[in-house]
Amino acid sequence: MGKIYQVIVLGLKGEKKTIDVANSETDFNNTTVVAFKEKITEKFPELKGQNFKLMYTDEQLQDDETFSKYEIQTGSIIVLILRLPGGSAL
């Protein structure tokens, strides 16, 4: 059995869930943020249809980027943040 590459997602209520991302380092590094968001909605079904963003270190992850761009490694912690409607720039 091969290694499973995983990350930990810190949820809205402070809960931590481990998400299986890929079975190889290459696939892990090439995982896009949008594909990862789909995996997150499987573990956090309450997010289905919600507008949420992900933070890693001090950066907001952009949907079209890959894990390798942000240097995300197996075991990294990604923070989930729910976007709320409303508000405006002054």
Write the layout of secondary structure elements.
Elements: E1 5-10, E2 16-22, H1 25-29, H2 33-43, E3 52-56, E4 59-60, H3 67-70, E5 77-82
Parallel strand pairs: 1-5
Antiparallel strand pairs: 1-2, 3-4, 3-5
Domain Ubiquitin-like: 32-87
Pfam families: ubiquitin
Protein name: Zgc:194655
Condensed summary:
This protein has 90 residues and is an alpha+beta fold.
Number of strands: 5
Report how far apart the termini are: 55 Å
What is the CATH homologous superfamily assignment? Phosphatidylinositol 3-kinase Catalytic Subunit, Chain A, domain 1
Outline the low-pLDDT stretches. Answer: none
* Strand order within the widest beta sheet: 2-1-5-3-4
CATH topology: Ubiquitin-like (UB roll)
- CATH architecture field: Roll
Pairing-aware structural class of the strands and helices? alpha+beta
Give the helix level as a range of percent.
10-25%
Percentage of residues in strands: 25-35%
Mean pLDDT: 91
- Highest CATH level, the class: Alpha Beta
Radius of gyration: 13 Å
Biggest pleated sheet: 5 strands, mixed
Number of domains: 1
Shape: globular
Helix and strand succession?
EEHHEEHE
* Count of individual helical segments: 3
